[in-house]
Design a protein that fits this description.
493 residues, alpha+beta, Uridine Diphospho-n-acetylenolpyruvylglucosamine Reductase, domain 2, Uridine Diphospho-n-acetylenolpyruvylglucosamine Reductase, domain 3, Ubiquitin-like (UB roll), 3 domains, five-stranded antiparallel beta sheet, 16 helices, 21 strands
């Protein structure tokens, strides 16, 4: 997979290392090095053989790069900054992002499953540059910009100018994205993100859209349909569309049709029609072009109606599930020939030559811990779920060297010497095990959930296991086991 694996201890060291490796690659005609944080995309690319072996520079341990901050710019306007290591789950639990970068928070909750969101970063989602990516659409609607840095200096690029096409950006090989900045929503601004996928979780967008509106003070105004309305007129609007062109686009005709008008039956329907005209989709395995174009109108109409009624965070009533109940700070590991990880309380060495192994394969092949299963090796099925520094992750998507200095818990260590974990016992009591292949992953996700929340709702249980697939269709019994565990954990009256 990788030829060398580096874990720099500072931003400057990472940039110098990146520059050196780029020069080495260019001199020798080898594959360019890659910076990774979550690494969820690159592991799949290696697995599928679409990326050549290259040097990896893992920046996931760098300090202070996972902060979400609010600052005032030179004009006195509030600006939200996201560091390059901010994960999707960290955005979801940020009250600042939920309130003042609402489309981004909504988009982050749509990415993958909780295990993916625990490691995948927003910056990585932007750099991947797929027109179907969730956060790109939201951030373009929020008028975001990114800061790129190399040993040569820094530059700021509006996100709308960052993309050249499908999986193509303006980044140079020696540059690192070090900041994402966006104007914080003002009291008279509101935003939303909506996505259409083929299933409720772990789905790539068929179509997605993000809308941010700014409204004038209330007062009777004349709309284009000839009626007067007390609904505030729109003074500015941004409508971004994803998965309908080679890069995220703006529905500019729809935006123009709404400026100066209130949201009404007439203006919303007209804007949805204009938005459809902006899309130039293709047909692929997920959808026909015709269906995508039709769904653009549907999503934009739904988004505008929710903004009209104020139901933007209707689905946010139930707090998000992180499956990250045990917060354990991992130790920085030196870039050495061998490193050690703690697994179920015991020390295990990660061989220096583990250049072709994920944490999953290292656990099974080197540690002899075969309870963790490989179902897809692409982060789709959740059978490989383990806890890494207290967070549930897909171990097939984590490079083995990243486990150095970390604390891991597998299915073998989730209980104790005296008894099974309550959820393990419930799986037995409720006959929730059929073939059993998916069971370790479900139990690890559940173990993290019940530490995080001892009395989760039905919806939160389903969200916690949204990244775990049971091919035997045993979900009813699995949910019954979760319910039994939940009831067992409540104080006795």
């Amino acid at each position: 997979m990788w030829t060398q694996y580096f874990s720099p201890t500072s931003l400057d060291a990472a940039l110098e290392m990146l520059a050196e490796q780029v020069q080495f690659s260019q001199r020798n005609g080898t594959a360019l090095p890659r910076l990774i944080a979550g690494g969820t995309d690159i592991m799949i690319e290696f697995e599928r053989g679409v990326r050549k072996a290259c040097a990896i520079i893992d920046i996931s341990r760098l300090q202070d790069l996972n902060r979400i901050t609010l600052e005032s710019n030179s004009l006195g306007n509030d600006v939200i900054h996201l560091g390059p290591l901010v994960t999707h789950n960290e955005v979801i639990v940020s009250a600042l992002c939920v309130e003042r970068a609402t489309p981004l928070a909504l988009a982050c909750r749509e990415v993958g499953a909780p295990q993916i969101r625990n490691r995948a970063t927003v910056a990585g989602n932007l750099i991947t540059a797929s027109p179907a990516n969730d956060t790109i659409t939201a951030l373009i609607a929020l008028d975001a910009q990114v800061t790129l840095r190399s040993v040569r200096g820094s530059r700021v690029v509006p996100l709308a100018e960052f993309y050249l096409g499908v999986r193509k950006t303006v980044m140079q090989p020696d540059e690192m994205l070090i900041d994402i900045a966006m104007p914080a929503l003002k009291p008279n601004q509101h935003g939303i993100y909506l996505k259409l996928g083929l299933r409720r979780a772990q789905a790539i967008s068929v179509v997605n859209c993000a809308v941010v509106i700014e409204q004038a003070p209330t007062g009777l105004i004349a709309a284009d349909d000839g009626n007067t309305s007390a609904t505030p007129a729109i003074t500015d609007i941004r409508i971004a569309l994803g998965a309908v062109a080679p890069k995220i686009i703006r529905a500019e005709a729809a935006e123009r049709s709404l400026v100066g008008n209130p949201l009404s039956e007439f203006t919303i329907t007209r804007a949805a029609h204009f938005a459809q005209s902006a899309a130039t989709p293709i047909s692929d395995v997920r959808s026909s072009a015709t269906y995508r174009q039709d769904m653009v109108g549907v999503l934009v109409e739904r988004a505008l109606r929710r903004l009209e009624t104020g139901r933007v965070l209707a689905e946010w009533a139930s707090p998000a599930v992180l499956v990250a109940g045990l917060q354990v700070a991992d130790a920085s590991a030196a870039n050495s020939d061998a490193a050690t990880a703690t697994v179920n309380g015991m020390a295990y060495t990660i061989p220096a030559d583990a250049h072709d192994k994920s944490v999953l394969r290292w656990l099974r092949e080197d540690c002899g811990l075969i309870g963790t299963k490989e179902g897809c090796a692409e982060g789709e099925c959740g059978a490989c779920t383990v806890l890494m520094d207290g967070k549930a992750v897909m171990s097939c998507l984590v490079p083995a060297p990243r486990a150095a200095g970390a604390a891991l818990t597998t299915i073998e260590g989730v209980g104790d010497d005296e008894k099974l974990h309550p959820l393990q016992q419930a799986f037995i009591d409720c006959a929730a095990v059929q073939c059993g292949y998916c069971t370790p992953g479900f139990i690890m996700s559940g173990a993290a959930l019940f530490v995080e929340n001892g009395n989760p709702s039905d919806g939160q249980i389903k969200e916690a296991i949204s990244g775990n697939l049971c091919r035997c269709t045993g979900y009813y019994k699995i949910l019954e086991a979760f319910d039994q565990t939940r009831r067992a954990m409540q104080p006795q009256q």
